[in-house]
Design brief:
The protein contains 27 helices and four strands. The protein is globular. With 552 residues, the protein is mostly helical. A two-stranded antiparallel ribbon has the order 1-4. A two-stranded antiparallel sheet has the order 2-3.
Length: 552
């Protein structure tokens, strides 16, 4: 008897599962602030060089004399704003000045001290370590290091979960997240910060991956898909909390403390989360699994027959070899297209989430909108992919999102600040459809990879998504290469072009709606043939009842 048959006895999503699901949602939603922590902790404020000899210099102008000194020592850039990294090396005896009191023959030199605006942030790790000018790249590098931690954690906690169990792995991830995030608040230099961000990234993916798995393994097959989609809605809820504390704290130390403390709540909740009985059976711990299932049945006011538990069989799937993804030209082309779509969806999603500063308008409101558009982004696939198909839906998400981002080149270059609201709106449309594309490519790829290599295919796809997250900060930095108003559009144009290419490549993929799940490599090769489609049609009409069909 299959394990899923047990849920027919104890209930597929009864009170016991709903209680566990609520606990897991709390664990899941607290990972959101960790993923976006750099938005405020690594906030990049307006700045300029500190005036030599003025220890109490501030970015805000203190009076007429202060304004004169700034005018005297700080050059203007091509947009008429004060230079951020250069000042005049003025010799009182040799320097000549024009009628506007600006140096004529002074040498321009790089400065080593800066003053920062406190209009948006009071204190960030950027201002603490002076990560500006020649060291600005370290901001993007720290974000890349974080995603490297996420990538490492995906492998590490996946293996730990299979060896020690889901529950123990979740506790390890929670404690690591709590300790590394608290330690992050006392980072005394950049290297310490980068190492601890790597750890928080690894622990973060361990938390949401393990909590997701426990949730899916405790519900029946008829509710599993929707349970998996609904939990995704709570990631943005955690980010809303993050915005709230960041807005009122505006200090990187207290922001991190406010994000870290709730993980103590997760540690308390952990005591009420049961182990996955599916994992217990797979490890031969039948007695423990039986006790947990009997408790669940009692909580759900159901009766569980002991005979059912005696014949439980856990299907063991052998790990597929990654090279089989490219064993056939058709499979290889599909695999490359899927990998690229995962990378682009992640790149645009995190590129717009973590780099709010490239947009016009209020920093906090922009990030709030970035978070809020995730809700309709998660909802779109629920209404579209079963009506229009996975392929068409994903094409629409990538195409519309790409066009929205690409269109910002016109609003920026021809409208500038007059159309800044439209520029931000177009970027938010891109983020919303990137969110929808992220959810849809997961379903599409899971249904295209044959069962024999599905785990290898999905794992490899996830790796490419992490690569997209790792390169997104540096794409956002391309705005600095051009500079000025026009530079704002460069990252969005790159995101838009990548999305449009992904949309075009998606048209090469076959539709998977109402098609039989490919079981073997041979099924994968024949997925688009008339014979395979006929088998799927026969199943839908009830002529073949023992073949699994995709149903969302």
């Amino acid at each position: 008897m299959k394990f899923d048959d047990i849920f027919k006895e104890i209930g597929e999503f009864g009170p016991y599962q709903r209680r566990n699901y609520a606990f897991l949602i709390v664990v899941y939603l607290l990972t959101g602030p960790i993923m976006t922590l750099s938005v405020f902790v690594m906030g990049f404020p307006e700045h300029r060089c500190q005036i030599p000899g003025i220890d109490n210099d501030t970015y805000a102008i203190q009076g007429t004399q202060h304004q004169t000194l700034i005018h005297k020592y700080i050059p203007l850039d091509k947009d008429g704003k004060y230079e951020k990294c250069i000042l005049y090396d003025i010799s009182q005896s040799a320097t000549e000045f024009d009628n506007d009191s600006r140096p004529i023959n002074a040498t321009r030199v790089k400065c080593t001290a800066w003053v920062y605006s406190q209009d948006v942030f009071h204190d960030t790790f950027v201002t603490k370590e002076n990560l500006v000018c020649d060291d600005k790249y370290k901001i993007s590098l720290s974000k890349t290091i974080f995603f490297a931690g996420v990538l490492t954690g995906s492998f590490m906690f996946g293996m730990i979960s299979d060896i020690l169990g889901r529950r123990k792995t979740l506790l390890i991830a929670i404690l690591l997240e709590l300790s590394s995030t608290l330690a992050l608040a006392w980072s005394y230099n950049y290297v310490t910060y980068a190492i601890l961000r790597f750890c928080t990234g690894a622990a973060c993916v361990g938390m949401f991956m393990t909590s997701y798995v426990i949730g899916m393994e405790w519900v029946g097959p008829s509710t599993r898909t929707y349970a998996g989609l609904i939990i995704a809605f709570f990631g943005p809820v955690g980010e809303l909390y993050f915005i709230l504390v960041s807005y009122f704290a505006r200090d990187w130390f207290w922001i991190i403390i406010s994000v870290a403390i709730p993980f103590g709540i997760d540690a308390l909740i952990w005591w009420f989360i049961p182990e996955s009985p599916r994992w217990l059976f797979s490890r031969g711990k039948n007695k423990e699994a039986t006790q947990i299932l009997e408790k669940a049945a009692q909580y759900n006011k159901k009766e569980l027959s002991p005979k059912i538990l005696e014949n439980v069989v856990i299907e063991k799937r052998e790990a597929g070899k990654i090279w089989l993804l490219f064993s056939d030209r058709r499979l290889g082309i599909r695999t490359i297209i899927i990998f690229y779509n995962w990378m682009v969806a992640s790149m645009v999603f995190y590129g717009l989430s973590l780099n709010t500063g490239i947009l016009y308008g209020d920093y906090y409101i922009n990030f709030l909108i970035v978070v809020l558009v995730e809700f309709p982004g998660h909802a779109l696939p629920l209404f579209m992919i079963d009506r229009f198909g996975r392929k068409k839906s994903h094409f629409v998400y990538m195409a519309v999102g790409g066009l929205a981002c690409l269109s910002t080149i016109f609003t920026v270059n021809f409208g500038g600040k007059d159309l800044q609201i439209l520029t931000t709106a177009l970027a938010m449309v891109g983020k919303m459809f990137a969110t929808a594309a992220f959810a849809t490519i997961y379903v599409l790829s899971a249904e295209l990879f044959p069962t024999a290599i599905r785990n290898a295919g999905m794992g490899s796809s996830s790796c490419w998504a992490r690569v997209g997250g790792m390169i997104s900060p540096f794409i956002a930095d391309t705005a600095d290469l051009v500079g000025g108003t026009s530079g704002t559009a460069i990252p969005l144009v790159i995101f838009g072009g990548a999305c449009l290419l992904a949309a075009g490549l998606t048209l090469i993929l076959p539709e998977t709606l109402h098609q039989l799940l490919p079981e073997t490599i041979e099924d994968g090769k024949n997925f688009t043939t008339k014979e395979y489609k006929e088998r799927s049609k026969q199943y839908r009409t009830g002529l073949t009842k023992e073949i699994e069909i995709t149903k969302f």
